[in-house]
Specification:
six-stranded mixed sheet, 2 domains, seven-stranded mixed sheet, alpha+beta, Coagulation Factor XIII, Chain A, domain 1, Rossmann fold, about 35% strand
Length: about 425
Amino acid sequence: MSDVIASARGLGKMYRLGSPDGLQARYNTLRESIVGALRRPFRRRREHREDFWAIRDVSFDVQRGDVLGIIGRNGAGKSTLLKILSRITDPTEGEAYLLGRVGSLLEVGTGFHPELSGRENIYLNGSILGMKRSEIARQFDEIVAFAEVEKFIDTPVKFYSSGMYTRLAFAVAAHLEPEILIVDEVLAVGDADFQKKCLGKMSDIARGGRTVFFVSHNMAAVERLCNRCLLMEQGSLVVDGSVSEAVGRYLASSRRADGRLNAVGRTYRDPRIAIRDAWLEQRGRPVSSVTETQELALVIETELHAELSYAVEFTLRQQDGLPVATASSGTRPIQEFNGRNGDVHTLRCSLPPLTLAKGDYSFDLMLSIPYVTVLESIESAIGFTVDSSAVGESHWSFTQAERRGCFYLDVEYSGRVSSTLARATHGDKVLDGSP
């Protein structure tokens, strides 16, 4: 029997770019209407306006107890979808409904009043969710302990750090017994221990039969937590199915067949410099697939539009998005590259020998002025495949799919016999591991 707790039909959200208000609002306040009327005579007759659909024609059903992952690149429409489901914004077209109490955590401090203390905000949020004071009081100590803010619970939250805000906001959203919990990437603000604790709590919520909507760029967390996944691309829903299917397509979209630069994941761009191209090279030849990982180099081509000194950083990631290793020329001792307007630099970063397991990998690229600012950042800029176990002469089938990690460790083994009988007969004997 179907037990649908959330449903969306033909959802769309349109923003009007170039308009003074930035978006086409369904309702205006009296103040907005008066200000708009006063400004109208002074506007140019012909304003360039463009309709931008953040999401369009999105439809799906969610069963009670589902843990639904929502993934996609920045700007794909994930957060807009959650804001519609949370009733923060109205859709331009279509409709959505959720049955039951909804707890949302879409940004740091969601629903908090900055002048109220942590204690007062807990009770305020519980009241908004329709809970009785006795129900909130029963959960209060557990919320405070989870958030680790005991010393500051009677301090106005405007004095909280972003980490304290996040811990308390998640604790409130997760512990006040919502039938549906909606969580955006905001958990990335917390430290690793806090993220682990949050994932554990969401697992507990799911096991209790409640429903979770989870947006994240951490594919390992999505695979661990979710039983179903939506993949968003440029405002459209392109996959509604298994987690492996959605994650596989998401990771494949970050790779070009020729192994060259894919700038789809660009998250920041400074006009003074640009990454024109990048590729992985082995023994002087561009490669997108390798059978052994010796003599590899990462080649980055940059173009300068101003006089500038900059550093290069890159991160190697597994196919599920987890970082494997990082290198930066901007650490001490700092190695910077200097150039003038119009210069094109070809930077060759020689990699140390890697014994990577079979699987897919990618490099994130970043240019920066060390300790000052990021100039350009591209997620999953270059993808490549390791086609064999890349462990020298070993015949052991060593793959990431077996969840044994991504590196093979070439370890020298030795031992020593220390029993009384062995010493009496042969003396101490060193075991060198040879057959």
